[in-house]
Structure to design on (199 residues):
């Protein structure tokens, strides 16, 4: 996929939903059992209930599993669909591999935005920014989360599991998701990010 700008925010995504994975429709969007008759979600995989532009991909190494889980739960409480790409166990893994799986998900159109985490957020943001269609912003505060959208049109938020606490992380996530790109002079600069001069 190409690196298009994020869609303008739709207000604050409406009211908080009834619970994790349960959207205003009452459907359990976390249920992936194609045989399930207990929830009322349509199971035809060709008919998405959530537009891809609203799906948020998540990935981390072992250094940020707890924070990733907290962020994922927060997104679910907001009624947002997530695509959790792991890591799924406590074993030591390599953060470039998880930047790669998230890049793949965005390239393939399975999600339009992403959240990456590692111990500091540094390694995985370096890895993510090697993909020209990703603009990954490592943030530690809400102002950076706002400006990475307004000025840089970041499509991936990066957090450090060993450096950022859950409350700050949740605020950063909300600000990242709810802030639009300003365009104007910033559009010219963002365009240059995708087309660096050959050296
Ligand atoms: O930038 C890299 C990340 O912070 C990694 O999460 C970190 O280097 C992993 O360290 P360790 O292998 O000691 O858990």
């Amino acid at each position: 996929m190409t690196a298009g700008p994020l869609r303008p925010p739709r207000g604050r995504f409406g009211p908080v939903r009834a619970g994790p994975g349960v959207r205003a429709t009452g459907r359990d969007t976390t249920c992936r059992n194609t045989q399930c008759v207990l929830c009322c979600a349509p199971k035809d995989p060709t008919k998405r209930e959530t537009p891809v532009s609203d799906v948020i991909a998540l990935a981390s190494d072992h250094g940020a599993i707890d924070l990733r889980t907290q962020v994922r739960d927060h997104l679910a409480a907001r009624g947002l669909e997530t695509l959790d790409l792991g890591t799924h166990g406590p074993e030591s893994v390599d953060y470039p591999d998880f930047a790669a799986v998230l890049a793949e998900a965005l390239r393939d159109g399975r999600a339009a935005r992403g959240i990456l985490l590692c111990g500091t957020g540094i390694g995985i943001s370096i890895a993510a920014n090697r993909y020209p269609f990703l603009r990954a912003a490592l943030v530690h505060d809400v102002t950076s989360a706002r400006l990475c959208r307004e000025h840089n049109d970041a499509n991936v938020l990066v957090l450090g599991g060993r450096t950022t606490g859950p409350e700050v992380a949740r605020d950063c996530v909300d600000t990242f998701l709810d802030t639009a790109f300003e365009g104007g002079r910033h559009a010219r600069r963002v365009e240059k990010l995708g087309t660096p001069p050959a050296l």
The chain has two domains: 19-49, 52-193. The chain has six helices and five strands.
